[in-house]
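Forum: Protein Structure Q&A
Topic: Joint prediction for protein chains with partners

I've read a bunch of threads here and the consensus seems to be that you should model interacting components together rather than docking separate models afterwards. I'd like to see that in practice. Below is the full input, 320 residues plus whatever partners are listed. Could one of the regulars post the assembled result?
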Amino acid sequence: MASRNADTSNGAPHLDSVSLAIIEQLQEDGRRPYAAIGKAVGLSEAAVRQRVQKLLDQGVMQIVAVTDPLTVGFRRQAMVGVHVEGDVEAVAEAIAAMDEAEYVVMTAGSFDLIVEIVCEDDDHMLEVINRRIRAVPGVRSTESFVYLKLKKQTYMWGTR
Amino acid sequence: MASRNADTSNGAPHLDSVSLAIIEQLQEDGRRPYAAIGKAVGLSEAAVRQRVQKLLDQGVMQIVAVTDPLTVGFRRQAMVGVHVEGDVEAVAEAIAAMDEAEYVVMTAGSFDLIVEIVCEDDDHMLEVINRRIRAVPGVRSTESFVYLKLKKQTYMWGTR
DNA sequence: AGGATTTCTGCGAAATCCGCAGCGCGATGG
DNA sequence: CCATCGCGCTGCGGATTTCGCAGAAATCCT
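Posted by a regular:
Agreed with the consensus. Here's the joint model:
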């Protein structure tokens, strides 16, 4: 189980329209059979299987179950905006290494970094934000947005 | 294909530890066979299958392919913080109805709403933010954070 | 306790997954 | 020019998984 996380080192692995179509199929249903996908994109079952495996290995996509953490036992979730001085990438790396960080993005705007965190409870969240994120060298300040309710969560950008 | 989107109407469908364990398995690999999951959680193959189907039907989880849109052809992606006056839920509903909105959350903090959008290019993004989101009744102002680079994207909160 | 409902189990049949050998094709280089 | 190599696709069986169903077991409600 070497590389669990996505290959976030944007290698832009050149995706042709067929692979795009395969991804679209799997965005609708991650368990759709290879044969059905093949029929939809005009490829044999084995070819689809090989392409999917490669896309997974390359980290271009992952096939997973996604949930709303708030409905599955986690009490507190938040988006945290981070102001950084110095090497943003290094700070991003450090925060991404934390288990509680689900989502880490470098952005252009008043925040240098946006981080989504999942916590057990208020104490845990306080600990993560104040003791861990703010302790990372280069973090100047943070601003938190605690989640009240998830209204939408989709992955079907391809199907429109 | 009645309800494609998650049941975001927090019905808190009471999940026992076995369903939690099943979700964990599928967070690691959305295509893991039911028999393997059953062995891991102590249930028969058929029982796992029934539970998974129910979790999907209830909208508690979805099994899908997730990608980094920036590596799959979409040029621009952003997080948009929204200040709302009046009925926040209604505004959230309206924005969630837009195809470009991938993720909509009501939050406590300086923003009432946080929205993640995926766009084809700069023009498209400008159109979505200025003409569509800001046109929703109740939206007082917005602040945008354009994505530069996705550093981490995980769904394995359960495996720690 | 009695009955209704839900959940689990244990099949057999059908469909799917998986590995492998072979073929076609473009690029490389002698 | 042609041989070779790399790479992706196809077409197979065999192993595995999925699927539907009927009965047993557990749970809930009155």
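Residues 45-58 of chain B form the longest helix (14 residues).
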